[in-house]
């Protein structure tokens, strides 16, 4: 039963997405099969799903338009009409080729796989979902096109009503639904078939034998499964071309409306394909996810993630980033941006670890803080890193703390994309108001004064507060003093200026060094001239101090940014001199 001339199973194995044979898209006659009449179009059911009848046999592929029209009639038509009729003919001929291909899938693969017990019925339905319905829908559309050609003779003046009947309304919705089912599982089907061929020689031999049949026209199974998606991409182009060559306004409007319906169907199917591919990736990540570090952690903020299931969430974006935990510690991570979480995954062999990292911070009792690998986006915001255009900060706030994560992308454009997506995703999340607070949230003007007076005078006022309000009040009371106006933002700049002045006094510039001997008394403190060694030591010390203060200036700039963010959290917009 092996494929003629084949020496190994994998040569005809089911691989990734193949290229459809160009013969399916040409306008020449290709098949001469059985010619039983096609069923008539049933009425849609209550939920937009027409009642389906039995599948008919393969139709004869119709001839091209130029093969039917007499030469004298052809020469009498304007060029736009000739073009229009050729495109209508291409629509009809390629629709017949597509119906033939779908029936090959059913007759040579789907039904024999079901009869041979290669897959459980449920799994086979996931590999060929809605195949019967697709054959029915495309066959009915082909039947209507053929009837319109028979009724119109050589020149089809009106085709818009036939197109709208297929792509608009309840029939269009049903077509969109079954196409989405089939196309969204295309990647899954190809992977399942490929894996089955690797595991089972009997199934491999069956596929090879089926592919050797003349009806397959030398196409492999992996080339046939994507044909429905490829057909959907063809419809808008064909209908647009028909509309562009239609002169009658009402008819042109119908064709253009049908073309727009096709574009909407294609958009919906593309989205369904992306959603399914994302789900399959999340399932693969979930299989490889290592939660052992979270389960061993005593961090209360991680307790809800010890049995994390990411397949119940939506994947927004993913990609590699560098996580700068400290100045001297960087970790390569694969970041998943979900609809409500940000995950920092570390690859270890085939596993994906969710692992916290410590960073030394003096305000904590033990001098360290733990940076968590799972973060909720409800309170997330992003900021650029002034000293690295590829890096960005993600700032997360909780009831009693805030943490800053520095992440580095591979390019500036990737950094911008990450920042935009994180900001948009976080902005789409709404935190529900506590049930104990029925009144609307106070405005910034009414909130600012009690918060400031509470932090400065130790008096929270007479307003009654819920426990959540009290925690926020205490947290902001601690943070808001850092937002007071003051000259601190210029501290590093002033210190650096003093160093420069001191350097000019102690170490003359090269321009001044050649002006003559130094004036009397110019030397080290305490009198006496400076030796060359002493001068070099002073120069090195000053250069080191200058570099240190430059670094302090960068740190201070980021600290000022954080103060501005914290002031916004307290709804208290205080001007920060030196931090702009």
Overview of this protein structure:
The chain has 580 residues and is an alpha+beta fold. Among the domains are: 65-286, Dbl homology (DH) domain (Dbl Homology Domain, Chain A), CATH 1.20.900.10; 297-359 and 370-429, Roll (PH-domain like). The chain is 51% helix and 11% strand. A hairpin with a 2-residue loop joins strand 9 (380-385) and strand 10. The protein is elongated, with a radius of gyration of 36 Å. Keywords: Coiled coil, Cytoplasm, Guanine-nucleotide releasing factor, Membrane, Phosphoprotein. It comes from Phyllostomus discolor (pale spear-nosed bat).
Name its key features.
11 strands; Dbl Homology Domain, Chain A; 580 residues; 51% helix; 19 helices; 9-stranded mixed sheet; disordered C terminus
What's the short version?
This protein has 580 residues and is an alpha+beta fold. Helices cover 51% and strands 11% of the residues.
Distance between the termini: 77 Å
Number of helices: 19
Mean pLDDT: 74
What value does the Rg take, in angstroms?
36 Å
SSE layout and pairings?
Blueprint: H1 65-68, H2 71-76, H3 79-116, H4 121-127, H5 131-152, H6 160-167, H7 169-184, H8 186-199, H9 201-211, H10 221-224, H11 227-244, H12 249-288, E1 289-290, H13 292-296, E2 315-324, E3 330-338, E4 341-348, E5 351-353, E6 357-360, E7 368-371, E8 374-376, E9 380-385, E10 388-397, E11 402-408, H14 412-428, H15 444-457, H16 467-479, H17 491-506, H18 510-513, H19 532-569
Parallel strand pairs: 1-5
Antiparallel strand pairs: 2-3, 2-11, 3-4, 4-5, 4-8, 6-7, 9-10, 10-11
Domain DH: 83-272
Protein name: Rho guanine nucleotide exchange factor 1
Keywords: Coiled coil, Cytoplasm, Guanine-nucleotide releasing factor, Membrane, Phosphoprotein
